[in-house]
């Protein structure tokens, strides 16, 4: 296999797990972390205990706090910081690339929308990185909990780019026997799928904590996927993307797994915890919380009915009792399916 120099920006759960996959494939990996203690731990003990417990990482991952050194000579840069840090990190990346006079493929693995602008990670990156420094832009989406990837659970994801050749390069660099990468060209569909499923996963955690069973979960998944798809259509996304890994696949993984931060947050909301308590308890990013607010605004702006996402908004941002929110959903005017 061709060895590629890959830089991974963000050493949380997902950045570390992706760095490990890329390192297993024999690529040369630089992992950029913004905290020196993380760098020291990864380089000396090959662990990142805060996010991935005792899992031992590939010895060929070299961590650094110096972003310019991390990307120097890289062909591919994976951007794996939370949504709220994406624009700032993209600015720093651009500065480094300008100084290095270097152009890279950037892959956004972040799942969320910028609260102020409703932009996706790939759009923020495209706005901040000058065209002469950008060989190509892709998104990595699909059902992939870091905890499963690091222990080699068979995992399927999708590299998505408007340029198929770029998606194929990412596919080639990242695929292995337990991490299978498909390609797709529907960037907006994939990024919407990755962001919107987090809101439905919060609802799934809440249902779980209230003791509801399979009927309620099936209703949530089916109708949740429907409203994700409807918003996707309003963006011109391909409805089939929502039937694939970035849609139903990621919805299933996130809304059924106790590894999911969004699902776990939903359970805590169901137990009556406040937003501050939920965020403090998690200690990791819960993208669905801010995405819920964005989706509330977007649905109004685009005239798309998203009743489940709106119910999550009411529970999170208007302190509505989850049981009342569920009753309200069940008592909406009766409808024909598939409209
Ligand atoms: N954890 C997972 O299994 C998966 C996560 N994702 C997505 O990947 C993105 C990152 O998530 P995780 O790694 O799970 O988050 P995390 O909470 O585990 O780690 C976030 C990392 O970003 C760093 N960070 C925070 N603010 C920063 C800043 N301003 N500049 C630089 N670094 C900063 C933190 O120090 C930490 O290392 C999210 O959008 C998430 O939805 C996608 C697929 C799987
Ligand atoms: O996107 C993910 C899995 O595909 C991770 O979801 P959580 O952020 O809810 O853990």
Give structural notes:
- Keywords: Cytoplasm, Lipid biosynthesis, Lipid metabolism, NAD, NADP, Nucleotide-binding, Oxidoreductase, Phospholipid biosynthesis, Phospholipid metabolism.
- Residues 186-326 form the Glycerol-3-phosphate dehydrogenase NAD-dependent C-terminal domain.
- It is a single chain.
- With 339 residues, this protein is an alpha/beta fold.
- It folds into two domains: 5-185, 3-Layer(aba) Sandwich (Rossmann fold); 188-330, Orthogonal Bundle (N-(1-d-carboxylethyl)-l-norvaline Dehydrogenase, domain 2), CATH 1.10.1040.
- It is built from 16 helices and eight strands.
- The chain has helices spanning 13-24, 36-45, 49-52, 67-71, 83-100, 121-128, 146-150, 164-174, 187-209, 214-234, 245-256, 261-270, 275-282, 287-302, 307-317, 322-330; strands at residues 5-9, 28-32, 61-64, 76-79, 104-108, 134-141, 155-160, 179-184.
- Strands 3-2-1-4-5-6-7-8 form an eight-stranded mixed sheet, sandwiched between helices.
- Helix 9 packs parallel to helix 11, helix 10 runs antiparallel to helix 11 (245-256) and helix 14 (287-302) packs across helix 15.
- The longest helix has 23 residues, at 187-209.
- The protein is globular and about 60 Å long.
- The termini are far apart.
- The mean pLDDT is 97.
- The structure holds 1,4-dihydronicotinamide adenine dinucleotide and 1,3-dihydroxyacetonephosphate (13P).
- The site of 1,4-dihydronicotinamide adenine dinucleotide has 26 residues, from helix 1 and helix 5.
- 1,3-dihydroxyacetonephosphate (13P) is lined by residues 111, 143-145, 198, 201, 250, 253-254, 260-262, 287.
């Amino acid at each position: 296999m061709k060895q590629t120099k890959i830089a991974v920006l963000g050493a949380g759960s997902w950045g570390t797990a992706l760095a490990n996959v890329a390192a297993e494939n024999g690529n040369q990996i630089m992992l950029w972390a913004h905290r020196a203690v993380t760098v020291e731990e990864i380089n000396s003990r090959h662990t990142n205990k805060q996010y991935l417990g005792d899992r031992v990482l590939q010895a060929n991952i070299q961590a650094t706090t110096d972003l310019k050194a991390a990307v120097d000579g890289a062909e591919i840069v994976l951007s794996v910081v939370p949504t709220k840090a994406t624009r700032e990190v993209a600015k720093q990346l651009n500065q480094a690339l300008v100084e290095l006079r270097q152009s890279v493929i950037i892959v956004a693995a972040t799942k969320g929308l910028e609260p102020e602008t409703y932009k996706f990670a790939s759009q923020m990156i495209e706005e901040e990185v000058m065209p002469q420094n950008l060989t190509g832009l892709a998104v990595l989406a699909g059902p992939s909990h870091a905890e499963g990837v690091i222990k080699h659970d068979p995992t399927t994801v999708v590299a998505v780019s408007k340029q198929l050749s770029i998606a194929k390069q990412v596919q080639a660099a990242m695929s292995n026997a337990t991490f299978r990468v498909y390609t797709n060209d529907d960037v907006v569909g994939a990024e919407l799928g990755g962001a919107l499923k987090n809101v439905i996963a919060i609802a799934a955690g809440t249902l779980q904590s209230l003791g509801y069973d399979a009927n309620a979960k099936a209703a949530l998944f089916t109708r949740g996927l429907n409203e994700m798809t409807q918003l996707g259509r309003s963006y011109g996304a391909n409805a089939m993307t929502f039937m694939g890994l970035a849609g139903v696949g990621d919805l299933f993984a996130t809304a059924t797994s106790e590894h999911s931060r969004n699902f776990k947050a939903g359970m805590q909301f169901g137990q009556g915890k406040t937003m501050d308590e939920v965020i403090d308890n998690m200690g990791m990013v819960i993208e669905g919380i801010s995405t819920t607010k964005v989706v509330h605004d977007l649905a109004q702006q685009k005239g798309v009915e998203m009743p489940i996402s709106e119910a999550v908004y009411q529970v999170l941002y208007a302190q509505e009792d989850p049981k009342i929110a569920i009753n309200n959903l069940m008592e909406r005017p009766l409808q024909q399916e598939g409209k």
